């Protein structure tokens, strides 16, 4: 299926199918891709696929909703890059809680340069767990990302030096708590180990070969990978948190949309982004993040922003599930 930004689908159903395929590139916790698309002639439905949920790691499905929200935004980007205006109805049917959103083409528009850039960024975006180089993120870049998050009703707060120190403690507590939970360790091993599902999970070439020497620790996987860490540190990185006033399902879905939008813009800016979801997955560290925010809102996810080493690119992209696994096309 053609996913070039300049390709204009001839029918709405074809456009929806193309958007669903492009949305498969979205980030998700442990690359579980916990979504399923239903393509109809008049709409595109996004459903949660709980067969790829993580009940031990993510018992309240917050990260599942963030992952699906990111896929939702990816689909919006794809439709706009085809020259369509899009309407999104989140959680449209209370009787169907797994139906997370419905997208509808509401008209046509000229494809803008921004739409093309976002589509290109979507194809380049990746998670880089290596330390960043000694090039600081500018205030202007952070302001742009803050404005983009705000379009989804989500706030982006740049952490102060003292708050980064508190974040490091929260991450450490989260990792310690996860290490004592057999269900969490089993899920991590299942999605990052040699028996991970085909087309999903995190292969060893994307997992650091040793623990990076950074002030804020990273997720501890059950085994070392093959990704060379290098000698960098996170001293020039910017840490930020996406947060909002609500803790309901709609808020977490919007957080995923904001995460995708911020990540794509960061990619356009030449920045690498590493999400920290472990501090949200654990009740204790999630409460710590709320205190870091002075109880002004609920932390949805933490971001590390920085410049990746241009001389050592990542080995491609993590795998993705086949289109037929994540999408059902209605014969009508």
TrEMBL record:
Residues 181-215 are annotated as: Disordered. SUPFAM superfamilies: FMN-dependent nitroreductase-like (SSF55469). InterPro entries: Nitroreductase-like, Nitroreductase/BluB. This is NAD(P)H nitroreductase. GO terms for molecular function: oxidoreductase activity.
